[in-house]
Task: inverse folding
């Protein structure tokens, strides 16, 4: 399992992730395969089934952001480009039982992408996906709007303490506008 969290500030986005991979009854600590990757001017955080995350991490070229409304850009450009990458790599994203979630940041905006390729944004700027995200979000909830690296790191540590599927070392990435 995974814990991914993010905060969208006024002129930045900050994403955090643990490094545990859970495969059935195996617990693998894997800092060499980060859950947050930089793709051009994007930050992509992946959780859930590995195959769709690998397709995006290694085979997806996100479109250049054109400065239009970010929500519209997600629907008209980002999601179709993700679908195209899935199809090109032979991944059937419509298959029953597939489970994944992503956090995507560009131009200081954060979006959650569900396994049905739905797109959401949070009114308070806080985002969390994965098994430990409720603990991490709880740790951050009273700290909006002054969330930085230290607060993200603390929230991930809280998640690791209470969620058996979350483990250090932690990864934190910041994107400034």
Result:
């Amino acid at each position: 399992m995974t814990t991914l969290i993010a905060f969208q500030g006024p002129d930045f986005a900050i994403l955090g992730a643990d490094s545990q991979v859970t495969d059935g009854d195996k617990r693998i600590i894997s800092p060499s395969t980060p859950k947050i990757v930089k793709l051009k001017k994007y930050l992509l955080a992946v959780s859930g089934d590995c195959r769709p995350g690998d397709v995006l991490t290694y085979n997806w070229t996100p479109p250049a952001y054109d400065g239009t409304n970010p929500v519209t850009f997600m629907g008209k450009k980002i999601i179709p480009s993700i679908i195209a990458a899935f199809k090109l790599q032979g991944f059937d994203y419509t298959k029953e039982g597939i489970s994944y979630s992503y956090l995507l940041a560009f131009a200081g905006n954060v979006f959650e992408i569900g396994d049905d390729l739905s797109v959401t944004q949070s009114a308070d700027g806080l985002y969390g996906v994965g098994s430990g995200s409720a603990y991490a979000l709880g740790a951050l909830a009273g700290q909006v709007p002054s969330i930085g690296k230290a607060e993200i790191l603390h929230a991930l540590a809280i998640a690791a303490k209470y969620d058996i599927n979350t483990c250090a070392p932690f990864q934190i990435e910041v994107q400034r506008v």
Notes: The domain at 3-50+100-176 is CATH 3.60.20.10 (Glutamine Phosphoribosylpyrophosphate, subunit 1, domain 1). The radius of gyration is 15 Å. The chain has a mean pLDDT of 93. The first helix runs from residue 50 to 59.
